[in-house]
Amino acid sequence: MLKINNLHVHYGGIHALRGISLEVPKNKIITLIGANGAGKSTTLRSICGLVPKTDGTIVFEGEDITSLKTTEIVKRGVTLVPEGRHVFPDLTVLENLKLGAYLRTDKSEINKDINRVYELFPRLKERKDQLAGTLSGGEQQMLAIGRALMSRPRLLMMDEPSLGLAPLIVQDVFKIIQQIHNEGMTILLIEQNASAALQIADYGYVLETGSIVLEGTGKELLNNQEVKKAYLGQS
Predict the structure, then answer these.
(1) Given CB 3.0 to 4.6 Å as the disulfide criterion, which of 23, 31, 107, 111 pairs with 204?
(2) Nearest of 187, 197, 186, 188 to residue 227 by alpha carbon
């Protein structure tokens, strides 16, 4: 579904991505793990056109999207749930969800999708008229995921969905990610909680200073001694 080949990104004098190549097959969960500054967020931002590429190609469903603008990439079905959630705090839950469908015109289908989000996240339905800025961190993360689903993505990219959340809420978020995936969603997941990510991932890549240094199935990486030592806190 998504193929990245030899991707390079520079920020000023920093070589943020150093020729990475990876694939996201349809209906799979692929995860990128690595320390802060490894290039994980840069990878997602480059896929959706938010940072300029120095070299390499990004192909989505057979089409080269390397040079497309972000709105064109979203129209093709690629959506990002950004790190830090970035909900609109002064808008209600419902207004935030409707903004997720801003490129759509099919009103009856939009209403169906709002109800679908409420089925996934009953708490959002309870708080639909509440300002997003007054929600808890976990509820804001649910809203960010729900808002992304409103664009009907074919590829859902998630940047640190568990960041700053209590352990019980993290479990809920990962259950929801699995549920969305079980319904056929292709997911590219960045997560510092490497253990949680690898347990649900079909395949994973380990990034260090802008390069892929390891790859394998989620199970293989969970059992890899280097990964255990560096990212899972096991010696």
Answers:
(1) 31
(2) 197
User: Which one, of 100, 75, 74, 71, lies nearest residue 85 by Cα?
Assistant: 100
Please, which residues have CB within 8 angstroms of residue 168's CB and are 6 or more apart in sequence?
Answer: none
Report, at the CATH architecture level, how domain 1-77+155-163+181-235 is classified: 3-Layer(aba) Sandwich (3.40)
Domain ranges of the chain: 1-77+155-163+181-235, 84-152
Element holding 31 (H helix, E strand): strand 29-33
pTM above 0.70, yes or no: yes
Q: Tens digit of pLDDT for each residue in 122-153?
A: 999 999 999 999 999 999 999 999 999 999 99
The CA distances from residue 88 to 158, 184, 189, in Å, are 18, 28, 22
Taking the CB of residue 91, how many other CB atoms lie within 10 A of it?
15
